[in-house]
Every structure is written in structure tokens, then in C-alpha cells.
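Z., the sequence and structure:
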Amino acid sequence: MASSPCGGGNFDCGLEIQTRSVEQTLIPLVSQITTLINHKDKLKKTEKTLRAIQRVGQAVSVAVGRFVAVGEAIAAENEDLKDEMGLACFEARRAGTAIAQLTDVSSLEQCEGDGRSTVFSDRTGMVKAARMLLSSVTKVLVLADCIVIKQIISSRNKVLVTLEQLERVSTFQEFVQIFSQFGNEMVEFAHLTGDRQNDLKDEKKRARMAAARAVLEKCTMMLLTASKTCLRHPDCESARINKEAVFQRMRLALEQVIEIVTDTRSGGEAKALPVSIYAGIKDFKVKVEGLRDSLYCVSCEAVAAQLEALMEKTEDFTDSAYTSHEQRETIIQLCQITRQETKQLINTWRHAQLLKAKEATDEMELSILKTCQSVGDLRRELHRVAVGRATELLKLHSDHLVLQALKASGGDGNLEAVADYAGTLTEHKEQLVETCRLLCHISGTEPLEITCIHAEETFRVIGPQIISAAQTLALHPTSKIAKENLDVFCEAWESQLCDMAILLKEINDVFEGRRGALIKPLSHKHLKTVKAAKLDAEEQTTIAKLGLELCLLTSDVDSEVERWDEQDHEMVRLCQIISSMCGFIFQVLSDQGLQLCHILHSLSTQLLDEDRILILSETEKLSAACQQLQVCAKTPVQGKSAIFQKVDSSIQNTKGILTVVVYLLPICNKLIRKCKSERSCLASPQHWREKQQSTTVSEETLNGFGVKSLEHK
């Protein structure tokens, strides 16, 4: 168990502190108590010193009192922790009172005269009170942290229940309703887990949490399109397979989050990362260099066995079909040199032990240097091979030709061509999976190893999902939702390639001894390559929440549109365009929104006063949001803060447009039906269409904002 952050360890509380917030809360308290305990025994007891000691003691006591009041309130609200929390609060209050009494030295002569203990006369009592205070306060904090964990588990359970409901829906209307609830629950879960991720002390846990949350974020959009495709084509086997894979991956990610926050696994065993070559070399060098301090701390056999285990792992490189003959020969040669140098080291080491030497001999020192140098040369060569392979693959896949071919073949209904390109994609997937495994070996840190494992798993899973989505489109080439579904999975593949480029840079930074800021290049040829500033957790959560809310609003629009009797009505057409465009190009969205305003104005002239006022009021809101979106889209910005504000403002305006559209659709549908039945006063959709001027969108307009889709924010 880890101890509290209490300097030299005199105040080990016996509780494991897993979060930064608990640790940071304890640091000021530790500092104040340390000041009280570590005073000099022969300290000159001036009036100034006495007042300072008393102020510190009183400050500790007051702070503990406030702290305990909060702890008792938490205990009252959580029955299952009430007794344990209550006891910890009682002990903390008692310890705080004891410290206040021991530091009440304003009248030291009177204290010494009546025999009362003080911090000067009873150092043991002060240490005992400090131990009790730190232990009880830490326990209160850890128990409060348990409540946070319970909130995350409860949130996960709600998501799982709704996920099961989504998997069983049979109608689009039911799906939209449940998905809205699911979206809200996922936003809550994202908030809780995002805060937890940033609060975790352990870098490995933070990396694992980031990987699991990334899966959930991307799978939410996949779940939406895969489920809609399955509902639209219920008898399609490939659509069913595609959907089931998404649900399964989400469940695994949810389970991983709970394993991290509870520090347990469903099977009861801790999952250890496979030892990478980098970690093996690092540990091997520590043991070898440790021989300088002690010739007897480890056995010769243990070092030899560790080296052979290390050499065995290099077979991932030498056995690869993608490793060139020259690279394979170089690695084998460096392994042989390392074996020879280690063997020589063991010989000199045993000789020194026979001589009963107390420290490494000169001959042994030379062998240590040569062994470390040879294993370092091996590490550099493996790094060069893995990074070179990854760089070549990223360059090879930068044009996404196979994905484009799959989309085209699926759209043409050409199952044979889809099968051919699926074979090519499968080969690319295997190359990327193996490359991620090699990068894991040389990544340099455990968090980067976890990121490599996440990348490997992502390519392994998304490859088959792209193929099943392409097969579905080939079977239903006119299906818009099947095409949208394939686009979503292809974008996830492209996104993972971008993430792999970032990962590659991070690995190089570690290897070269620097850790730079993350740079994420956009892979789309019509965009300029820019540096993407790394958003903090709150900003990421804000954008993710807004993005999910947009997805829900587009589903609401689709649902309302399906209720219209006249599917060819001009208003239906424009609302569908707005819904489909909102995730892609803001400028086009605003143009279509303003065109819808003209339609609404035309409608208002045929309505009575009350209805006309309502339509005009909503039209003004829609027009204002569209104009603000146009201005924002055309305004160039630089820097992380400005970019975040622009994206946030654009999404907020887009959300405002969709909110008005969702509100107006049922109202306009009702008004049109009413007027047609009672007065037949509304013109035909064709007549409305002829009254409107067509809107031409230039290439400059399309490139105005510089983003491909909402997901890339």
C-alpha cells in the first residue's frame, strides 16, 4: 500500500492514495504539522516564536473543524459509509483539538507552572496527534473518493441498461427516443470519467482511461449509424454483424473504465502489460550496472536468463515478413554481440566472486561498459526499424485509396470488387497491427506502450467493420444511411492513422530525450496542415457534449421529417439538407438556413395573426443564428484559445439552428395540414420552389472554415 505524501514517511497512513486531488489536499496539512514537529529542541522561546506556533496550531484546528463538518455531511448522505466516515471524522476532530492544546503556548510560563503539556514539553504527544490527524483526514478523503467511484459505477450501469434497450429496438421512432436518453447518459459518464482521468496519479491508469474513453467517444457515432442502418435494412446480415461489433466494443470499453477506477478486474486478476523490449533492456542495464555496487545482489544465472528472454522478444522483428533482409541481419548480429559481451561479463563476474572481491574489478568494469553499449546499440537499431516501418506505412496510406475504392464499389453495388478491396484492406490492417506491436516494444514509456496497444486493437477491430459496412452498401447501393455508416467507419480509420502519426512523434521525442507538444496534422488534401492545440479535459468535454447534442438533434429532425405526408415539400427538403450538412460545412449550413427563412416568411403571409407572430419570431432566431455562423466561419483565427472559441461558437450556433428547425417542423406540418383542410390556401411545394432562387455554393465557400466534419473538431 502506498503511504501519504508526508515527507520522510513518519506519518504513513496505511491507505493508498490514487488521486492527485487527495494528495494535494494533504500537502498543506503535512507542511503545517511538519513545521510544528520539526522545531529545534533548543529553540529560543521568544514572544514572536510562541505566537507563530500558536497561530499554526489554531489554523490546523480550525481547518480540521471545517473539513470534518463536510465529512459528516457526506456521511449523513451515504448510509453505507456513515459509520466508517463518522469514526474517521471523530478521530480527526479529536486530533485537531489535541494539536490546538499542545500549541497553546501564549503563556508558556503558566503552562510549565501548572504541568500542562505543550509542543515543547511533549514532543511524543505531538507526533502521536499528528499521526492520528493525518491518518484520519486521509481516511475521510479516501472514503469521499469512494463516493466518486460509486457515481462512475452508477453512471456506467445506467449506460449499460440503455445500451441493451438500444440493441433491442425495432422501430426508428423508438430508437431516436432511447438514443436521446443514451446521449444524455453518455455525456454524464464522459464528465465523470474525464475528471477521474485527470485526477489519477498513476500514468498507466491515465493512459488506459484515455484509451477507453476514446473508444466510447468514437463508438457513439458508430452506434448511431450502424443501428440506423440495421433498422433500415433489418434482414441484412452484414449490417447486423457491423452493429453487433460496435455494441460489443462499447461494452468492453465500459468494463475497462470500471476496472481502472476500482483497480480490479472482472476475473479477479490484475492484468499486467506484456514486457516490452525497451522495458526489458532498461531492467537488464539496471541489473548489470548495479554490479558496481554489489557483486552478490543478483545471480549470474538470473542475468543470463533475462538476456535470453530479451533476445527472444527481438524475434517479433526478425520473424516479421515486412522486415528487410538487411535489417534482419543487422538485428541478429547485434543480438549475437550482446550475448558475447554478456557472457564475457559473467566470466569476469564469477572470477571476481571467487576472489571474494568487495567491488567490481577493472576487468569487470570494462565488461559492464561493453555490455551496456551493445544492448544500447540493439535498442537503437530496433527503434530505427520500427519507426521507419511506421513512417513508410503512414505515407503509403495517406491517400486512403483503398477506402475510396470500397466506397465507390459499394455505391456501385459491386460485391465482387468490394471483396477484392476488402482483401487489400485486410492486408493493410495486418501491417498496421504488426507495426503497432513493434512500436510498443520501443515506445519508451508505459503510457506510450498502452497507447500503442490501443492503436493495435483499434486497427484490428475497425478493419472488419469497414468491410461489413461496405458489404451492406453493396447490397443496398441506393441507401443513404448505409453510405453514411461506411463513411463513419472510414473516418474512424483515418482518424486512427492521424493518432498513429502523433504517437510516432511522441515515441521519437522520448527516444531523443524531449517531450514536445502534440501536433495533429489534418490528412485532407484540400486543407492546409495545421498544428492542433491539445485541449484540456474541460474543453474536450465541452466539445464532445456539444457534438453529441448535435447528433441527437439531427436524429430529431429525421424523426420529424418522417411524419410529414408530403415528403417532397420544399420545407422538408431544406430541413433535410440542414440536418445532413450540420456535421460538415458550416457555411453551407448557414446558406441553407437563410433560404429556409425565406420559405418561412412566405408561409407566414398565409397565416392568421397568432400563428404568423410565432413563425416570424422563430424565423428571426433562425436568421440571427445563420448570420452569426457565417461571420464565425469566415473569421480566421490562430492559437489554441481562439480556435477553441471559434469551434465552440460555431457548434453553439449550429445547435441553435437545429433547435429552431426541430421546433418548427411539427408546427409547420400542423399548420399546413390545417390550412389545406380548412381553406386550401397554401401554394404547392412546386410553386414555392419556383419562387425561391437557387443557392450556388462556391468552392471558396466550402473551404471557408477549413474543416471536413464535426468529428474533426
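The longest helix spans residues 123-168. The chain has 24 helices and no strands.

Let me know what you think.
H.
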